[in-house]
Design brief:
heterodimer; A: alpha+beta; Cytochrome p450; 17 helices; B: FAD/NAD(P)-binding domain; Enolase-like, domain 1; six-stranded mixed sheet; about 20% helix; globular
């Protein structure tokens, strides 16, 4: 058995609280067993690898001798070409630049800010709907709020018809599940499910993109499909894989940030009370959440282009790396008293959104969504309390978060 | 003074005077208060304004996107200081521990921090420099005046000197659609700071953005019209450039004249201090009560052969100010060395340029990522078989890696593969720095001096 560490990390038994395991892992900043991946668990080592140009995100650089349960993920890319998440410069830089053009500075500096009113409308609508049910004894914050909110946002941003949501919800789940390293699952079965989902999502988006090429709107899908900036235009396949990436990332990450956020606040009622009085506190709260309970726990897809040394360990060229962001975020060498949730920390350069060229593309939007969601939930829910602690978690160890968050409250303020 | 309570007394009731109320002075004052200094704090500044930020002056302010009046530095905390603004320090009596001010006042200190920075080097011909339409850019007032001149829609702007500031000014002019000529004595823009290999890229950026770039030429004279406004400039190659706005961007001069004759080791190259920010006197003996920080300081750096470095860098000013403030309030064993790795950034023609280390020390250069043709790349400078500096164009996220390479004395040529290595990046080239004895616009880093342990250490006497 060569992969005790990996099995431990993905063992569902650790899902509700993986942090004691990470603490154990940090005793060996670089762990490696057999021919599996090198697991990096300490802050400074992860941080420097994220900025290291000898590290590739392109699966084609992986030397295929390893027994990496995520290695198969790469082969699933057959239905769609790799998105920029899994590319190196210059291809990564070009696609990310083109995607950023309609989304962020310098070309669209107000885009995210200008969405605030729209986000506020969605949040208000969802909380009003909870109020309208009148059953405050059992509210599932995932199904009734944390999932539909970012999904509505990403659909509007991309210009995907919201009525199609039930269809691509299934595909997004299947693709996200393929990120989940389960060495005991039948890889060919898993690969097939994900490849099928990719194929269907690809076909679905291809239809939309074709339509937006004929009738462009002011949504991002139209802007990606019709890009004509200094970097030229995207091929149909590039536009497909990019929009699929945004759609899945918009589905599977912010939901966990919001859910982990409410869970953490309900476990720290003093902070929740402060937030209710002062919505501006949502800014440091979300940063501390990204450190304390990051929605992306680890980055499993990095490869060495050269023999490198990390914390005294030699890692050969072509090796696979797992960077355990959530463990680095709890490294006491970086953050004093790391297991304490403390929104008043001043020094909070967490790894929750990654770092370096692959740092979270949607970060400004995710931050704004989470800040708004948490401050509004804090303001409007009367006396909210957890019904189940810990709540039931999703299977996924990489994109970790509760499947449901059952709470009760006394009512909903207007 | 250890163990006799002097330090405790200083922290409680001492008098600290900071000369220079800009970035370094402010951050030092804030750090002192943060560390519990409860005595009196006096901030002396020759400009009438509270501390403001200079980088925007050559960028957003010139584009009219921000006004010079709105560049005040954000405060980290209250500093409860007595502000003496709009009055320059004119002298120092080291024995009596007194700073003399331009209005005749004298201020006594127990600890003195000198952070008087630099000023723009003026046009050498005073009469020509006084013509209407001739500008320098260093202060808030400079920025506001130049912005007004640019908004008036001049027929042509001439920028003399293509260092970082000159290039940023040219970039702003082009962004505003103004015709601009840049005259540079060296072979290319930025050549003093980054060498010829990178200078060539910068030259391409100028030309592609419609700058009329003239290299290898000097401006020999400025000509005014009868009303006393500049109308043309004469070049060493015999050409005449008609321009109604001329910006003199020939680097900086250190503000040390006020220390002339004081006995402090101050001169045109700055104020020499040790790695703990304590000033040297003219005899080469370190003082106990006078500290230096920011652009005006030059101090030995262990990573770079203990050469005395003067760094006109924003980040250096902050870091050195924090170290100086700490050391001013510490026992000698608790003092910290200023070991900041040099680094700066610039933004011009839509490209973000960032550097770490000391590029002018480099003899060779390798393009380790990306390509110069695309103006997106990372380049590494080598000196005596090790990595000494790096620069990125629109690639700054990789820079922390290269900084670590510099800090650990990693080997050069770079022996490993990197993402996005192009064929041109596999072998080192000469970094192509100009002969330092030929003056250009003044690089942002000047190298001088020897190890503090070297008995042959000499200082330029203060004469101006």
């Amino acid at each position: 058995m060569s992969q005790a560490i990996l099995r431990e990390i993905i063992d569902y038994a650790h899902r509700a609280d993986p942090y004691p395991l990470y603490e154990e892992l940090r005793k060996t900043p670089v762990s490696h067993e057999g021919d599996g991946p090198y697991v990096i668990s300490t802050y400074y080592e992860i941080q420097s690898l994220l900025h290291d140009p000898r590290i590739s995100s392109d699966a084609r650089n992986l030397k295929r001798t390893g027994d990496d349960p995520l290695g198969q993920g790469a082969e699933e890319e057959t239905a769609l070409p790799p998105s920029f998440l899994r590319l190196d410069p210059p291809d990564h830089d070009r696609l990310r630049r083109m995607t950023n053009r309609p989304f962020g500075p310098p070309h669209s500096p107000h885009k995210v800010h200008d969405m605030l009113g729209e986000l506020d409308g969605i949040v208000t609508g969802l909380i009003d709907r909870i109020a309208a049910t009148g059953s405050f004894g059992h509210v599932d914050l995932v199904d009734q709020f944390a999932y539909p909110f970012p999904v509505s946002v990403i659909c509007r941003l991309l210009g995907v018809p919201p009525e199609d949501e039930p269809r691509f919800h299934v595909w997004a789940e299947a693709i996200a599940a393929s990120l989940d390293p389960d060495p005991d699952a039948d890889p060919s079965e898993r690969g097939k499910n994900s490849a099928d989902a990719r194929m269907e999502l690809g076909m679905y988006l291809a239809g939309l993109i074709e339509e937006r090429r004929r009738n462009p709107g002011d949504d991002m899908l139209s802007q990606l499909a019709n890009a004509d900036g200094p970097d030229g235009s995207m091929t149909t396949m590039e536009a497909l894989s990019t929009s699929a990436l945004l759609l899945i990332a918009g589905h599977e990450t912010t939901v966990n940030l919001i859910t982990n956020g409410m869970l953490t606040l309900l476990r720290h009622p003093d902070v929740l009370a402060r937030l209710r009085e002062d919505p501006a506190l949502s800014v440091p709260i979300v940063e501390e959440l990204l450190r304390f309970e990051p929605p992306v726990q680890l980055i499993p897809h990095r490869t060495t282009l050269a023999d490198i040394e990390v914390a005294g360990v030699s890692i050969p060229k072509g090796a696979s790396l797992w960077l355990i962001l959530a463990s680095g975020n709890r490294d006491p060498k970086r953050f004093p008293d790391p297991d304490r949730f403390d929104p008043d920390r001043e020094d909070i350069q967490h790894l929750g959104l990654g770092s370096g060229i692959h740092s979270c593309f949607g970060a400004p939007l995710a931050r704004q969504e989470a800040q708004l969601a948490l401050s509004e939930l804090a303001r409007r829910l009367e006396n909210p309390r957890l019904l189940q602690d810990p709540p039931p978690y999703r299977q996924n160890a990489v994109l970790r978060g509760p499947r449901h968050l059952p709470i009760a409250c006394d009512g909903v303020r207007p | 003074m250890s163990g006799d309570g002097t330090l405790e007394h200083l922290r409680r009731d001492g008098r600290i005077v900071v000369v220079g109320a800009s970035l370094a002075g402010l951050r030092a004052a804030e750090t002192m208060r943060e560390k519990g200094f409860a005595g009196s704090l006096t901030m002396i500044g020759d400009e009438p304004y509270e501390p403001y930020d200079r980088p925007p002056l050559s960028k957003q302010v010139l584009l009219g996107k921000a006004t010079a009046e709105h560049t005040a530095l954000p405060r980290r905390r209250e500093i409860d200081a007595e502000w003496r603004l709009g009055v320059p320090a004119t002298g120092l009596d080291m024995a009596a521990r007194r700073v003399r001010l331009g209005n005749g006042d004298e201020v006594e200190y127990d600890r003195l921090l000198i952070a008087t920075g630099v000023r723009a080097r003026p046009w050498p011909n005073e009469e020509e420099g006084a013509l209407g339409g001739v500008f320098v850019l260093r202060t808030r007032d400079d920025g506001a005046a130049l912005e007004r001149a640019l908004s008036a829609g001049p027929r042509r702007v001439l920028v003399i000197g293509a260092g970082f500031t000159g290039s940023e000014i040219a970039s702003a002019c082009r962004e505003r659609g103004l015709p601009v000529t840049v005259a540079e004595r060296g072979a290319a823009p930025l050549v003093g700071a980054l060498g010829g290999v990178i200078g060539e890229v910068a030259a391409g950026m100028h030309r592609e953005n419609g700058v009329d770039l003239r290299t290898g030429v000097m401006v020999t004279g400025l000509e005014g019209d009868p009303s006393g406004r500049v109308r043309a400039a004469h070049l060493s190659d015999g050409e005449t450039i008609e321009a109604d706005v001329v910006v003199v961007s020939l680097g900086a001069q250190r503000n040390t004249e006020w220390l002339s004759g004081s006995g402090l080791g101050a001169g045109p190259r700055g104020i020499a201090c040790d790695a703990g920010c304590r000033a040297f006197d003219v005899r080469g003996i370190v003082t106990d009560d006078i500290f230096v920080a920011g652009d005006v300081a030059r101090s030995p750096h262990a990573l770079f052969g203990y050469q005395f470095l003067s760094l006109e860098h924003w980040g250096n000013a902050v870091a050195q100010a924090e170290t100086a403030a700490h050391n001013m309030l510490s026992e000698s064993v608790d003092r910290l060395p200023h070991l900041w790795v040099p680094g700066f950034w610039s933004s011009q023609f839509g490209v973000n340029i960032k550097s770490v280390g000391v590029p002018p020390m480099g003899t060779e250069i390798m393009i380790t990522q990306g390509s110069r043709d695309e103006r997106r790349f990372a380049a590494v400078y080598g000196y005596q078989g090790r990595v000494i500096a790096a620069v990125t164009f629109d690639n700054c996220r990789w820079l922390p890696f290269y900084q670590r390479q510099i800090e650990t004395g990693a080997p050069f040529p770079v022996p490993f593969e990197t993402v996005d290595r192009r064929p041109e990046g596999h072998k080192p080239m000469s970094a192509d720095f100009p002969d330092p004895s030929v003056p250009t616009h003044g690089p942002t880093i000047t190298l001088s001096g020897y190890s503090p342990a070297d008995r042959k250490m000499t200082f330029i006497p203060a004469h101006h």
